[in-house]
Design brief:
Blueprint: H1 3-9, E1 21-26, E2 30-36, H2 56-72, E3 81-92, E4 101-112, E5 115-124, E6 127-139
């Protein structure tokens, strides 16, 4: 999926759309996304001057957006929004800096009604930079 297709699926927009491309998707099951991290990101102005590092919470949000694409691509969920409901056992293992390409892998591990859980891994190259579980709720806007 390119950026236009992503924007047709999830409601996020600049400066909070944190996924540039979806490389692989199994609707309702898993998705792999890509985020090209550039110095032009608005958060680098203050995080941190002279030592730009992508905030960990935004890495988790990028993974949540990839999960939302997987869930909202399913026929029965189109038009809904995904709301982040929890972050469990998350670990940030390395820094993400301008020039990095962030590979975002999300697998939906449980779905009960409108509440789901997924396991996410964020990588730069082959190195895991963050991983953990996210909970989400699907809602009608």
């Amino acid at each position: 999926m390119d950026i236009t297709q992503i924007q047709e699926t999830i409601p996020h927009r600049y400066p909070f759309l944190l996924v540039d491309r979806i490389l692989d998707i199994q609707e309702g099951v898993r998705a792999v996304g890509l985020k090209n991290v550039t110095i032009n990101e608005p958060f680098f102005n203050g995080h941190f001057p002279g030592y730009p590092v992508m905030p960990g919470v935004l890495i988790a949000e990028a993974l949540a957006q990839v999960a939302a694409v997987a869930m909202l691509s399913s026929e029965g969920n189109r038009g809904k929004i995904g709301l982040l409901a929890g972050i469990d056992g998350f670990r940030f293992r390395d820094q993400v800096k301008p020039g990095d390409t962030l590979l975002l892998e999300m697998e939906i591990t449980r779905m009960k009604g409108t509440i789901g859980k997924g396991r996410g891994v964020a990588k730069v190259g082959e190195k895991i930079v963050a991983e953990g579980e996210l909970m989400f709720a699907l809602a009608n806007p």
